[in-house]
Amino acid sequence: MSATDILFKRVTFIGIGLIGSSLARSIRHTKVTDHITVCDINKAHRDKALELGLADDVTGGFIEAVKDADLVIICTPPGVCGDVAAAFAPGLKEGAIVSDVGSVKQSIIHDVSQHLPDGIHFVPAHPIAGTEHSGPEAGFAELFDKRWLILTPPQGTDEAAIEKVTEMWRRAGSMIERMDAQHHDMVLAITSHLPHLIAYTIVGTADDLGDHLKQEVIKFSASGFRDFTRIAASDPVMWRDVFLNNKEAVLEILQRFSEDLTVLQRAIRWGEGDTLEELFARTRKIRREVIEANQR
Amino acid sequence: MSATDILFKRVTFIGIGLIGSSLARSIRHTKVTDHITVCDINKAHRDKALELGLADDVTGGFIEAVKDADLVIICTPPGVCGDVAAAFAPGLKEGAIVSDVGSVKQSIIHDVSQHLPDGIHFVPAHPIAGTEHSGPEAGFAELFDKRWLILTPPQGTDEAAIEKVTEMWRRAGSMIERMDAQHHDMVLAITSHLPHLIAYTIVGTADDLGDHLKQEVIKFSASGFRDFTRIAASDPVMWRDVFLNNKEAVLEILQRFSEDLTVLQRAIRWGEGDTLEELFARTRKIRREVIEANQR
């Protein structure tokens, strides 16, 4: 398989938001396929996909969308992956590969796998990339360049299918990692889900302030708060589903965070400067490690 | 007073870290003064200030540092502003202006004012600008360009002194705002102090994980965590002092934040998706207001 071979005769996207539309743009450039079908229940998204040249054809019907597809990529919010899989599964052709891009893996594997007939290969994937913008017009082909793509195929998944999906992402510029789904969900709970939950909370706390104070907070947001507003502008439905579908890992890490915050709260109340300084010096080291790990 | 007039014959910096060295660079460019004296108890900082051309002379002695100064700018961590003011106050010449750059204002006004003799004008100021780096070599003249500078002069402060300090910051590119010190401390508790406390906490929580998991968190930090590590790399001593010196406002806003987080925790536990989605949609609106407020 060379880097210019067509990988799939026909690819179908189920859902064409930020991630789906970015991947559609990427696989056009990299000749992963000759033909892209886009299925989205939102007519405005379908029209936009055609207008942007992301799709050769579009449809609102799940069975029709997948009937000739060699690869079907579910790019919906995590909470409906199972439902859409149930809807399109009867139309899949023998040997087709199904993949996804969801930010949680255990629940999606559970929800999707049960609907797929024998002879279909499911290769769960998660590109660690995104922006705070949503919808097909927000996508761009370079979104995945030099970003991680985590594959979490269950034991026994067909290796040839995994390799084809891997090659598609490699061509998008991704760095590939393979991981157990449960481990993925714990790592992401810490690196992504908790930070988003905290950012949503703090911006919500500010939103509940009196009007005058709130306007001042917006005006002087440059001092830290602004970074949180960017994170807290991410897609509401997608993130709702992330928290509902990675409940155990998120609650576990949230509990640890709350305990740690309570310790700092107490140190502030009682003027225990050493406790604060010791922690603040320690966290500075982690920043250095993050930079050394070449994450900019 | 034209934009090219010398504003102060002699300016003295007490402390030459990130903020002090940036302002020293700026006032050289903008001809605010002919002569800069740097006083720092750290000899390495004094040597660096000379080497970088930030100072015409340097000293470790507070009295000597201020004896001919028309403007003395305290650029130390907030917790020692009062101590250094006590140390240099006997050396101040009649009519000198004292200013500062601290991130908390009520406690600094309290700590500094009590040591200043009659005939000295104290103009408290806070440039809302910074990076996660520290020390004289981390500074740069453009740090304050298009950033807010908040003045919190107590009632009765000499208007001519306020205007001279204002003009210095205007030449550095700052946008100027005047505010009551108590109000400043509440606004900054929300926009800056709480976000930093949260970022320090979450990075500390990650640091306490087992080694293998921690390495994975660092590796996959791009998904949100990385933004927090940058904030949590800020100067430990400065931030210790901020929390100890803005205790009431920080604890008040932290309490609100904790309540809001508990509501979300419960919503996740009981699968109440509507509660999550409603908040996440609401916070997205604040991001738009922040962008409209022209803060990038």
- CATH H level of the largest domain in chain A: which superfamily? NAD(P)-binding Rossmann-like Domain
Which pair of chains has the greatest number of interface residues, and how are they split between the two chains? A-B, 91 and 91 residues
Q: Structural class per helix/strand content of chain A?
A: alpha/beta
Terminal Cα span of chain A: 32 Å
Query: What would you report as the Rg of chain A, rounded to the nearest angstrom?
Result: 21 Å
Percent in strands of chain A: 5-15%
User: In the CATH hierarchy, what is the class of the largest domain in chain A?
Assistant: Alpha Beta
- By DSSP (H or I, 4+ residues per run), the number of helices of chain A equals 12
**Gross morphology of chain A:** elongated
- Named CATH topology of the largest domain in chain A: Rossmann fold
Task: Determine the mean pLDDT of chain A.
Answer: 95
Assembly annotation: homodimer
What can you tell me about this protein's structure?
2 copies of one chain form a homodimer. Chain A is an alpha/beta fold and 296 residues long. Chain A folds into 2 domains: 8-179, 3-Layer(aba) Sandwich (Rossmann fold); 183-292, Orthogonal Bundle (6-phosphogluconate dehydrogenase C-terminal fold), CATH 1.10.3660. The first copy, chain A, is 51% helix and 13% strand. Chain A has 12 helices and 9 strands. Chain A has helices at residues 18-29, 43-51, 62-66, 81-88, 106-113, 159-171, 181-207, 211-219, 225-231, 236-245, 247-269, 273-292; strands at residues 8-14, 33-39, 57-59, 71-74, 97-100, 121-123, 125-127, 148-151, 175-178. In chain A, the strands form 2 sheets. Chain A has a 6-stranded parallel sheet, with helices on both faces. In chain A, helix 7 (181-207) packs across helix 9 and helix 7 (181-207) packs across helix 11 (247-269). The model of chain A has no long low-confidence stretch (mean pLDDT 95).
